[in-house]
Design brief:
Shape of chain A: globular
Number of strands of chain A: 10
Number of helices of chain B: 10
Oligomer: heterodimer
Strand order of the largest sheet of chain B: 7-8-9-3-10-11
Bound molecules: adenosine-5'-triphosphate, magnesium ion
Strand content of chain B: 15-25%
Largest sheet of chain B: 6 strands, mixed
Number of helices of chain A: 9
Strand order of the largest sheet of chain A: 6-7-8-3-9-10
Radius of gyration of chain B: 19 Å
Radius of gyration of chain A: 18 Å
Strand content of chain A: 25-35%
Structural class of chain A: alpha/beta
Largest interface: A-B, 62 and 64 residues
Structural class of chain B: alpha/beta
Number of strands of chain B: 11
Distance between the termini of chain B: 33 Å
């Protein structure tokens, strides 16, 4: 496989703390690759490292086979790779209107046809044109998350780094957004790297996934292995049991 | 069961340049020492309902109710000072954006310690130990390290748990938890729910649990309110979710991707205009 994105022995540290400890993943063009694992295990750090936002201390990241600088990413990179951040509150400037937020990436990358694209993007994420001139602080959590997705999709990148993209959405809107993501991936041959704590979502969206714990990848498997319970790590097994819901007796 | 909170015909709206946005349109319910779940569509008014109870409705919004009463106190007419005092001690809310509701320039540990010390007079040393113990209780690994981190230095799920730890240390009688576990992996999620569960069953806390995760709510709560477009469209015993009558609730149950089902595209709701009347 020639990977479109790969991380090789990637290490990220904050002072003496290793947030990523020698992590490697390979993602094929057009693939949707999942990341699951414990909270604090380094999933966001890995996506952020690919986007040039984590302090990489060792290892390398390649895009289309070419190694990227440890930190610097040029404009062309962001034309090709867009990230949807985990936190819908932090990732959108609160004093900007939705229109301005969607306008900005189009302007940066010199994409024409802004008017049509903005209206289409809003429609695709289930927010009509009545939301266009709202400020982001006037939106609910899930509405912000959808604007963040629209903003990443609007310039039609090739690769999307999706960090818990539907964690703030109810099942009905989540289904619409997941269908949208699947459809654009098919139509435009996109590649996704997607973090989700919901195993149902990950197995629905991704062919393969990596399980992270404590800054390391502890298991790599296909979604069908996960569904069939062909797991080797105890941690992954626990995840499977826990995903069946809350059971009062075993509570702490 | 004794009622601690009564909400009757609560309305919250926002005047904007392009017209009035009605976020909450006549919501009524009561709460005792129990777990009440609120689920509903994105933008249906769940957070604004919780914020109204807390007294955190934005100043420019219009808010009204026939009754908004906590333990005999009329929340709408209570002086600001009374409300602030309630908020610090007897009523608490875990906000949907935990990392941005924490103080960005103070370490997580110090924020928890300060909360504790406004409630109890404890030595610096003991406060630190208890804060670390609380971080451990919410399953934060390496709590001593996290104690010294600032909010922007923790992961999404760690921020959520730090906020939970802070609220728990305050020991409120009523807790409004707005999507408190949405960033947590399932194993940690269950531990945190276990803690909340114990507070309800052992300390008699009243819990409003806002979530978009129907499966979680139905396994955890006693009762569930379903909201759509600013209104309650259905109220159910959690165990009775399978018999939901409203097409929105029924639709919700059907459009979740689950392990082992293979449906591409996922079924979506055919939203009817009359649902939002
Ligand atoms: N700027 C920073 N300074 C110090 N530590 C950091 C910083 N950013 C991240 N970390 C640490 O790196 C670890 C991994 O964080 P990361 O956000 O990648 O976790 P995650 O797997 O995305 O978790 P979650 O599922 O909760 O979002 C955490 O322990 C976090 O405290
Ligand atoms: N400051 C504001 N000005 C105008 N409208 C607002 C403001 N805050 C919220 N709204 C609107 O009020 C409605 C209800 O918002 P609320 O945050 O209560 O939704 P929610 O049910 O919590 O949704 P989510 O699940 O997406 O968090 C939304 O349509 C939102 O856009
Ligand atoms: Mg994360
Ligand atoms: Mg909300």
């Amino acid at each position: 496989m020639t990977a479109i994105v790969s991380a090789e022995n990637l290490t990220v540290s904050f002072d003496d703390f290793l947030a990523l400890d020698n992590v490697s993943i390979d993602v094929a063009p057009g693939e949707s690759f999942g990341l699951v694992g414990e909270s604090g295990s380094g999933k966001s750090t890995l996506l952020r490292a690919i986007a040039g936002l984590s302090p990489v201390t060792d290892g390398r990241i390649t895009l289309d086979g070419k190694p990227l600088d440890v930190k610097y990413r040029d404009k062309a990179f962001y034309r090709q790779v867009q990230m949807v951040f985990q936190d819908p509150y932090g990732s959108l400037h609160p004093r900007q209107t939705v229109d301005r937020l969607l306008q900005e990436p189009l302007a940066i990358h010199g994409v024409a046809d802004a008017e049509r694209r903005i209206l289409r993007a809003l429609d695709e994420v289930g927010l009509g044109s009545s939301f266009r001139f709202r400020y982001s602080h006037q939106l609910s959590g899930g509405q912000r998350q959808r604007i963040a997705i629209a903003r990443a999709l609007i310039i039609e990148p090739q690769i999307m780094l999706l960090d818990e993209p539907t964690s703030a959405l109810d099942a009905s809107v989540q289904a619409e957004v997941l269908n949208l993501l699947e459809q654009v991936r098919r139509d435009r041959k996109l590649t996704y790297i997607m973090v989700s704590h919901d195993l149902g979502v990950v197995t629905h969206m991704c062919e393969r996934l990596a399980v992270m714990k404590n800054g390391k990848v502890v298991e790599r498997l296909s979604s069908s292995d996960l569904v069939a319970g062909r797991l080797s790590e105890d941690y992954t097994k626990n995840l499977m049991v826990a995903s069946k819901g809350f059971v009062r007796d075993v509570a702490v | 069961m004794s009622t601690m909170l009564t909400v009757d015909d609560l309305r919250v709206s926002f005047p904007t340049r392009t017209g009035l946005i009605e976020a909450v349109r006549g919501v009524s319910f009561t709460l005792g020492r129990e777990r009440l779940g609120i689920v509903g569509e994105s933008g249906s008014g769940k957070s604004q309902t919780g914020r109204a109870i807390m007294g955190l409705t934005p100043a420019h919004a219009k808010i009204s109710a026939n009754k908004l009463n906590f333990d005999g106190i009329d929340l709408l007419t209570a002086p600001a000072k009374t409300r602030r005092a309630l908020r610090g001690s007897r009523i608490a809310m875990i906000l949907q954006d935990p990392k941005y509701s924490l103080n960005p320039v103070m370490s997580i540990g110090r924020q928890i310690v300060e909360t504790l010390r406004t409630h109890e007079s404890v030595s610096r040393r003991e406060a630190r130990d208890r804060a670390i113990a609380m971080l451990e209780a919410v399953q934060i690994r390496d709590a001593a390290r996290v104690f010294d981190l600032h909010p922007h230095e923790v992961s999404g799920g760690m921020g959520q748990r730090a906020m939970i730890a802070m609220m728990l240390i305050a020991g409120p009688e009523l807790l409004v938890a707005d999507e408190p576990t949405s960033a947590l992996d399932v194993t940690v999620q269950l531990e945190v729910l276990g803690i909340l569960d114990k507070l309800v069953s052992e300390r008699g806390m009243g819990l409003i649990f806002i979530s978009h995760d129907l499966r979680l709510v139905s396994s955890f709560c006693d009762r569930v309110i379903v909201m759509y477009a600013g209104k309650i469209v259905e109220e159910l015993a959690a165990s009775d979710l399978g018999n939901a009558k409203h097409p929105y609730t029924q639709g919700l149950l059907n459009c979740m991707p689950t392990l082992g089902t293979n449906r591409h595209p996922l079924p979506v709701l055919d939203r009817q205009l009359e649902w939002a009347l």
